[in-house]
User: Which sequence fits this backbone?
């Protein structure tokens, strides 16, 4: 059964830019009221003002790279006269550099934001959705979750975790009225994308955030568990699954050198 977005409320993390921003805009176009959160309050306020004529928008500044920030966000949402029907976990960072080049502080922030934060938010909001028999969870993963990514080792590992978690959850919550989907984009034109990576790939493999967002929401509405936007990205992921892991590691290492 197709999920109807109209008259629902979505919590979108990482909404100040990139795919998270595009998801918020796409949700508003589908009649979804919004709770948007990120660290950059000025951008959140601008987004709320932009979309406020279409739907109800609440902007909550939060630093989700620390546990206290996650707890504060949950408390703030609990204080709102809104029920979260759709949870969109998009907040994340993608540092470029070898494993040993990453400081302990940066590594902890990466794991917190990409792994612990979505896990904590799912554990809070999923039981509430199940009690109502209605809800959707969209985790923004990456094609990097399908194979090792030399040069971005920790990032790829965090996305592999989130992809695996989403797939397992989709089975555990079957029949509850709640469904989970993983949106796995490839290289997308955002502020954080590495220009060298864009130039090294075919044009058709580099997507705009708006296309990624709409593909993810379409998949969420249909109950698709894994969504890889773009036909070339889909073909690349499928082909990679049939290649020896040593070969994919080697290809990843070559691409890392090209992008450095």
Assistant:
């Amino acid at each position: 059964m197709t999920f109807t977005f109209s008259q629902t409320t979505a919590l979108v993390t990482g909404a100040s830019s990139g795919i998270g921003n595009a998801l918020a805009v796409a949700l508003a176009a589908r009649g979804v009221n919004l709770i948007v959160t990120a660290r950059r309050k000025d951008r959140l306020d601008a987004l709320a003002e932009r979309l406020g004529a279409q739907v109800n928008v609440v902007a909550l500044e939060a630093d989700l790279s620390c546990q206290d920030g996650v707890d504060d966000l949950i408390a703030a949402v609990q204080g709102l006269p809104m029920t979260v029907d759709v949870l969109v976990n998009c907040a994340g960072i993608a540092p470029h550099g070898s494993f040993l080049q990453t400081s302990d502080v940066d590594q902890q922030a990466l794991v917190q934001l990409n792994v612990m934060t979505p896990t904590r938010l799912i554990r809070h909001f999923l039981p509430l959705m199940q009690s109502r028999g209605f809800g959707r969870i969209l985790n923004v993963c990456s094609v990097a979750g399908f194979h090792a990514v030399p040069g971005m080792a920790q990032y790829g590992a965090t996305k592999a975790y989130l992809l695996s978690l989403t797939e397992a959850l989709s089975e555990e919550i079957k029949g509850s009225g709640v469904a989970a989907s993983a949106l796995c984009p490839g290289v997308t034109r955002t502020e954080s994308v590495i220009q060298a990576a864009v130039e090294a790939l075919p044009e058709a493999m580099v997507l705009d955030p708006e296309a990624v967002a709409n593909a993810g929401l379409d998949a969420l509405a249909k109950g698709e568990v894994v969504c890889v936007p773009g036909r070339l990205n889909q073909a690349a992921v499928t082909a990679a699954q049939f290649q020896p892991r040593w070969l994919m590691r080697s290809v990843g290492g070559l691409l890392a050198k090209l992008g450095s």
Q: What stands out?
A: Residues 104-132 form the longest helix (29 residues). The chain has nine helices and seven strands. The mean pLDDT is 88.
